[in-house]
Amino acid sequence: MREENSLILRDLPSLNCLRVFEAAARWQSFVRAADELCVTHGAVSRQVRQLELQLGVALFERRNRAVFLTQAGQQLLSGCSEALATLATTLAAVRAQPAVRPLVLSCEPTLAMRWLIPRLPRWQQRAPELPLHLLAAGGAVDFVRTGVDAALRRNDFAWGSDCHAEAVAPELMAAVCAVGASPEQGALLHSLSRPQAWPRWQALGKPLPPCPAQQRFEHFYLSLQAAQAGVGYAQASLYMVVDELRAGRLAAPYGALADGSHYVLLCASGRQQEPALQRLLAWLREEMQLSREQLQGVAGLELPAS
After folding, report:
1. How do residues 134-158 score in pLDDT, each as one tens digit?
2. What sign for the dihedral angle of Cα 54, 56, 57, 63?
3. What is the DSSP letter of 298?
4. Is the pTM of the predicted complex or chain greater than 0.70?
5. Domains assigned to the chain
6. What is the pLDDT of residues 249-295, one digit of tens each?
7. Which of 72, 130, 145, 285 has the fewest Cβ atoms within 10 Å of its own Cβ atom?
């Protein structure tokens, strides 16, 4: 069927020839067609002649400096008028459709890389008509300057009165290491982006792994990679390591705790009821709840009560 359509399309005259013919046939005048199309009389005559040569039939009778449609010309005019009218209606409908604008979501870099991006295919299945574009960033958001629609953040900073916040899920933290790693032979891994992670862990009643050394990394993501490589023990958001824990690439031998912080979805005040943002919020809540449920099946991982 596709090959047949391709052959038919290759045999069609150019759209420009047909458009010129339709105007000349409608007016039965090359001069008036030229005026309508803003071209010369000679240009109309050449396009019509080219069309006649391609079709192998005369479309006009030329008598006494006037033109008259032949029977073939009458037949082609009927078809052209109908086809061009259909095309014009279709183009008007296409132009009237609103442009598909992607939803721009800003997300903390480590959460984006380790949790959100692996789950994007499920968003695409759920909302194929609503593309989601990601920006990796943390902290406060200037929604006007950046063009961001929403931001997924932890509620550990002041975001200002011009933002609206909706709770997504409570944070869950754990001390993670490579499976089989011994704390006596590793380092306690710190991240400059979450410098209070270990003190907070200890203040909430959890023991520090008895590591003989300390090592600091600039980003949270790097400390997690180092833990997975067997360098030592890192503090981790369980959402960021759920896939590694389930696959047995990481372990959390000291259990987990809720440190009192939450993930929130921020948007500019006044936009929170927009349907696209409501759909995104619902999906993020469902995905974080699913991640928490998946952690229930990880051997040896004790989760705090909901």
Report:
1. 999 999 999 988 999 999 999 989 9
2. positive
3. S
4. no
5. 2-96 (1.10.10.10), 100-306 (3.40.190.290)
6. 999 999 999 989 999 999 999 999 999 999 999 999 999 999 999 99
7. 145
